[in-house]
Design goal:
- By secondary structure, the protein is of the alpha+beta class.
- It has one domain.
- It has five helices and six strands.
- A hairpin with a 2-residue loop joins strand 2 and strand 3.
- The longest helix has 13 residues.
- About 5% of the residues have low confidence.
């Protein structure tokens, strides 16, 4: 099953982190994400009112699976947390876009990270990338060594979401649309 990135075209995706986890509970996913949170500012300073200092995760139980959404794009899970979320026969994936135009995709299975790159559209090393994601990755990949730039490729965040859905089988659209 390969998902079409166009399925996500109508969403506001500039600053967003989406984590999909199979066979889990919303409470378990939220606890793992909160335990790995690293504040980006000094939250103890009452004058500090930076939206990027604290993460607000919204979890959605979709049958046996979970989608967690964070709306700044700056509090995605660590690689260790991604691996932990996939323990015990699960699959987990993260798609993240932030205002700095950094788009991450990562996926893990059975407690081990298969692929993770903070700017995956430029990743030359695809070792570990599951075969079912190769076509989607090809559509978004930018060859930095090419003399000419072909900027007609797929949108990275749309593709990252499609890759996450293809890998986990978890469709995050209901969580992202508020359905």
């Amino acid at each position: 099953m390969s998902v079409d990135p166009a399925d996500y075209e109508d969403l506001e995706l500039e600053e967003l982190t989406v984590v999909s986890v199979t066979s889990s509970s919303a409470n378990e996913v939220l606890a793992a994400l909160q335990s790995s949170a690293v504040p980006l500012g000094d939250a103890s300073d009452p004058d500090e009112d930076d939206e990027y200092t604290r993460a607000a995760w919204f979890t959605h139980q979709l049958g046996p699976d979970v989608v967690a959404v964070e709306y700044s794009g700056y509090h995605d899970p660590s690689v260790a947390t991604l691996a932990a979320l996939s323990a015990v026969g699960r699959r987990a994936a993260v798609a993240r876009s932030n205002i700095d135009a950094q788009v991450r995709f990562g996926c893990a299975e059975d407690g081990r990270v298969l692929f993770d790159d903070d700017e995956f559209a430029f990743a030359e090393d695809r070792s570990g990338l599951p075969a079912e994601l190769t076509g989607l990755m090809d559509a978004v990949w930018v060859d930095l060594d090419a003399e000419e730039s072909d900027d007609d490729g797929a949108a990275p965040m749309l593709t990252a979401l499609a890759m996450a859905e293809t890998f986990t089988g978890v469709r995050p659209l209901p969580a992202l649309q508020g359905d």
